[in-house]
UniProtKB/TrEMBL annotation:
Transmembrane segments annotated in the record for this chain: 23-43, 155-175, 181-199, 211-243
Cell location: Cell membrane
PANTHER family per UniProt: INNER MEMBRANE PROTEIN YGAZ
Statement: the UniProt record of this protein carries the keyword GTP-binding: no
Highest taxon, organism lineage: Bacteria
Family listed: Belongs to the AzlC family.
Bilayer topology: Multi-pass membrane protein
InterPro entries: Brnchd-chn_aa_trnsp_permease
Keywords: Cell membrane, Membrane, Transmembrane, Transmembrane helix, Transport
The protein's name: AzlC family ABC transporter permease
Keyword Transmembrane assigned: yes
Length: 246
């Protein structure tokens, strides 16, 4: 390798490292907001009888906080596996739409990089990655999607989520009932921040409103956790029906 080739390689490595660090720094404020409800999830899981290693396996293999909260709420002994699987699928079905929105920016990447990137996709890393890709595209920077930036945000979220849910499970027996502390308010607060960043006007937000109203009505009038499934399904249907109007 010549001196010029070595210099170019080093510069490319520096840019990659810079993009990775930029991703970590961008997600840090949101990441700090997820820590309280990660602890809540861990504490609730131990109250439902899950062991620490079981919770760590669940959060590591199914990296999606909304469906994990739903699964914990439905957890019984013995658990209703089919119901939990069905609710998990419905809650996580939003990832189909999220992946579809991201797909146009991933076409330049090989599948061996795309599939691992999508495994680590969560609401927060998706929102940051998509917003950054759109900004880079508007600035004329190519390729628009920075995989290093996205993975910096996604891996930071993944490691923090697994670590702090595990810590919550370890501290759960000591803390007892954590609901009076109000930590669970961090969950809707983080999603409100993400929604603010994706806001495109009232027309585009109509599926969110439909999902919210349906879930609230089902929660008030139907016992059990069917409001989760009802909210997810109504939101998907509304997004499909109203897609041409937004």
């Amino acid at each position: 390798m010549s001196i010029s080739q070595a210099t170019l390689s080093q510069e490319a490595g520096d840019r990659s490292g810079s993009e990775f660090r930029r991703g970590i720094m961008s997600c840090t404020p949101v990441l700090l907001g997820t820590i309280p409800y990660a602890l809540v999830l861990g504490a609730q899981a131990t109250q439902k009888g899950l062991r620490v290693v079981e919770l760590s396996a669940m959060t590591g293999l199914n990296f999606a906080g909304g469906s994990e909260f739903a699964a914990i709420q439905l957890w019984t002994s013995p658990p209703h596996i089919l119901l939990i699987v069905a609710i998990t699928f419905l809650v996580n079905s939003r990832h189909l739409l999220m992946g579809a929105a991201l797909a146009p920016f991933l076409r330049h990447l090989p599948r061996r990089k795309v599939f691992p990137a999508l495994f680590f996709m969560c609401d927060e890393s998706w929102a940051l990655g998509l917003a950054d890709a759109r900004q880079r595209a508007s600035d004329g920077i190519g390729p628009a999607f920075s995989l290093r930036y996205y993975m910096g945000a996604a891996l930071a979220m993944y490691l923090a989520w697994v670590a702090f849910t595990t810590l919550g499970a370890m501290l759960g027996p000591v803390l007892g009932n954590v609901e009076p502390y109000g930590f669970d308010m961090a969950f809707p607060a983080v999603f409100l921040v993400l929604m603010r960043g994706m806001w495109k006007g009232f027309a585009a937000a109509r599926p969110w409103l439909v999902s919210l109203v349906v879930a609230a009505l089902v929660y008030l009038f139907v016992p059990g956790a069917w409001y989760v499934a009802a909210g997810a399904l109504s939101g998907l249907i509304a997004a499909y029906v109203l897609a041409g109007d937004a």
